[in-house]
Amino acid sequence: MSPSKVSNIEFDKFYNIVNGEQRGSKEIHHGVNPSTGEELWDVPIASEQDFNDTVAAAKKAFPAWRDTPVEKRKELLMKFAELFQQHADEFTKLLCKESGKPQKVAAIEVGGVSGFIQYHCSLDIPSDKFDDDEKTVYTEYTALGVCGGIIPWNFPLILSVGKVAPALLTGNTMIVKPSPFTPYTGLKMVELAQQIFPPGVVSAVGGNNELGAMLTTHPDVAKISFTGSIATGKKVMEASAKTLKRVTLELGGNDASIILPDVDIKKVAPEVVMGAFQNSGQVCVATKRIYIHESIYQDFLQEMVNFVKTIKVGAPEEGDNLLGPVQNSMQYEKVKTYFADSKAKGYKFAVGEPDIQDSKGFFIKPTIIDNPPNDSKIISEEPFGPIVPTQPWSDLDEVIARANDTNTGLGGCVWGKDVEKAMSVARRMEAGSIFVNSWEKPTPQAIFGGHKESGIGGEWGKTGLLAFMNARVIHVYKN
C-alpha cells in the first residue's frame, strides 16, 4: 500500500505512521475484543524497512524540533490536547473495544490524555547557575534525540502520552510502539497528532516483540522508555547497553497495603478493594497484598467481602459495570493459575469462586484469598488480575519487613487515622510511590518509578523531564 497524507481520521482503519504519512503493510494482525473473544480490525505489522524509515525520519526531524523554542513546542502540544479532546467519544469507544474497560473507566483514561499534556506544558526546562570570582558555570539540559516508547496493554493511551508529552516538550522526537494486544488507540492518537506536529516528530509503528528488539538495538535511537514486565525490562536494558542508550524502565510491582488498627473500617475497606481490583487488577501499581491489623482483621475482611459482592463485572456495552474482562487470553490463562494453586493448596476463598467458568470473554470475578502463607504463589508473585490475598498482622516492625520482603518496589499504601504515624510507616516502605489513606493513584505532577526490580529511573513530574535530557555544563571564565 502506498503512503498517503493524513487528513480525515477514520476510527475503523489503522496504519503505521511513518514520516507523517499513513503506511499499511502486507502483513497484518488483529487485536481481540476481550469481552467477546472476537477479532477486531486489521492492523499493519511494520516491516524492518518501515521501522528503519521511521527512525530515519525521526532523526531527520530532530534538529529542527530541538531548536524550536520551547514555548512554540508547548503551543503545539496544547493544540494537540485540544484536537484530541474533540475526538474523546471516538477514543473512548475504541478503548472499550480493545481493552474491555467499562465506559466510565475508559472515559477517565481518555480525559487524562489532555490533562497529562496540559500539566507538562506548565513546566519549565530545568537549569542552574553557579557564580564565583573566577567563573560562571551554567548547567543546562538538552534533548537526547530519537526516543522509543514501548507501551503495555493495560493503559494504552495514558502510558503513550506519558512518554510522548515529556519527550516532545524537551525537544526529542518520539517513536511509539503500541502493544499488539491493544494497538488501536495508540496508533490513532499518533495519526491524529500528524495534524499538529511536523513530519517525523512523533511516529508509530505496530508489530510484535521483534519490533521492540529493533528499537533497542538501532544505533540512531538514543533512549528507550519501556513500561512492562520485569523479565522483558531486563532484556530491554541488556540490548540497550550495546549502544549505551538511556533507558527508563517502569516494571512490575507487588504492592503492599498496610491497614493500621485505627481506621474507619466501613469507609476504608471499599477503598482498599478498589485499589486491588481497579482495571480488573491489571495495574502495575495496584494493591497486590493486604495486611490488616489482627484486632480488626475479621471485621475489615467482612466489609471488603460485602463490597466485592456489589461489584458488577461485564462488557462495556452492558452498562454501569465497575470491572471489565482480563484484557487478553495469555493473561487470562496466567491469572487462572493463581486460582488453581490456591484451590489445590486448600486456601480459604473469602469471596470469589475457586473455579473460573469458561465464557466467550475473559471474565473473572474479583476474589479474595483469606490468610494464605507467606511463601504462597498468591503472596510472592504478581497475578496482574482480580485476585488478592489478605493477612493479619500484630507487630508493626514485622509487617513492614513482610511488606518489603520482595524483589519489587513500585508502590504501596498505608491506611490510618493518625496521619503522622501512617507517614512514618510510609517512609519505611521500599517503593517509589507510597499512598497514605488512598489506593494507588499516580499523578503526572510527581515522578513515577520503581525501586529494586520494579524499574530504573522515572518519568512524569518536573524531575521526570530529566529522563529525556542530557546535562550540558558550560564553564565561562571571566577575563
From TrEMBL:
Pfam families: Aldedh
Aldehyde dehydrogenase domain span: 29-473
Keyword Oxidoreductase set for record: yes
Catalytically driven reaction(s): an aldehyde + NAD(+) + H2O = a carboxylate + NADH + 2 H(+)
SUPFAM superfamilies in the cross-refs: ALDH-like (SSF53720)
Enzyme Commission number(s): 1.2.1.3
Keywords: Oxidoreductase
Active site (UniProt): E250
Entry superkingdom: Eukaryota
Gene Ontology molecular function: any one: aldehyde dehydrogenase (NAD+) activity
InterPro entries according to UniProt: Ald_DH/histidinol_DH, Ald_DH_C, Ald_DH_CS_CYS, Ald_DH_CS_GLU, Ald_DH_N, Aldehyde_DH_dom, LUC3-like
Family: Belongs to the aldehyde dehydrogenase family.
Protein name: aldehyde dehydrogenase (NAD(+))
Annotated source species: Sporormia fimetaria CBS 119925
Origin organism lineage: Eukaryota, Fungi, Dikarya, Ascomycota, Pezizomycotina
